[in-house]
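FAQ: What does the model actually see?

It sees only this:
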Amino acid sequence: MVSCRSMSPSAAEPPEPLVLDTPRAFARAISLVERGGPDADALMRRLGPMPLRAWTIGITGPPGAGKSTLVDRLISSARATGWTVGVVAVDPSSPFSGGAILGDRVRMMGHSGDRGVFIRSMAARDSLGGLASATRDVARLLDAYGFDVVLLETVGVGQSELDVVKVADTVAVIAVPGLGDAVQTLKAGILEVADLFVVNMADRPGAERTTAELLAMLQLGAGREDGWAPPVVETVAVEGRGIEALWAALERHRTHLEATGALAERRRCRIETEVLELVDRELRLGLRRLVGAGGEIGSLLAEARDGRVDPHTAAAAILARSGLTRGEGDCDAVVAIPGDAADGRR
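And it is asked to produce this:
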């Protein structure tokens, strides 16, 4: 187990260590991480440079695709192999409280008495990438706590909701018949993200067409650098049909990742991305504090807001004043536009 100390900058003496040796203590640590702030950062730093060990599977797809029911079935499959399972279900946020609706956890109540399963619902809040901002840290805590498999269920999938690839080793994209053209439903970028596709509710009319469209889309796409060909698996999650085939496909992908060295490479890339995103977050917060403090930087922002200077010039000046400079472009380079382009005609 991991012993962590919640560090409060306002406390004269640090509180007693938070020992993650019970589900209740572990849930409290997750709540601390979900709230964010200095205490959450201190807790994550206390974890140290622990290697990623848990097999992390991302489950994403449009609302109503049956993701929660599929996750519930996958929990059973993992438990049948003797593996422990941690689940992070990212729910839509309540427009009033900002909290999670908790619909996912309700559908997984059958595992509530299993000590080898831990389920946590999180609110997406203002995240546009399909994951709550603290999801990665919660997944890391599940790994550190000793879970063998971590299942991440995201809010949905679209052109901007691809953040699950930054956290998961294996990504399963769920599609269902009756939601229109699968090629239009799964926008650009999904082909590169998905390690396998699942056509859930395959007993509905149009399931064969959805599967055929996905297969055709995969055949038209460029081959993947890692040599993996994403399969398409049909399931009826509410009846448990196709779950064995889905779990077998997931395990084949994990075996492929391990055999080719892609698993270690993915995890190295994820850690690098995490570091850069944390630095980016702190830089943005620091700049906002400088702007809020007024002074020269605040004046530059006011000049841009009042139209006295263009946004690019203001941004460059703010970066320079903050010590964060970037390469300057060639301001003397002039692109000549022939004809009457100056007044909008060609």
